[in-house]
Amino acid sequence: MRIAIIGSGPAGFYAAEALLKRTDTIVHVDMYDRLPTPYGLVRGGVAPDHQNIKAVTRVYEKTAARPTFRFLGNVCLGRDVTAEELRQHYHQIVYAVGNEADRRLGIPGEGIARCTPATVFIGWYNGHPDYRHAQIDLSVPRVAVAGNGNVAIDAARILLRAPAELEKTDLAEHALEALRNSRVREVFILGRRGPEQASFTPPELKELGEMEDVDPVVAPGELAGCAIPETAGN
Question: How many domains does the chain have?
Answer without folding.
Answer: 2
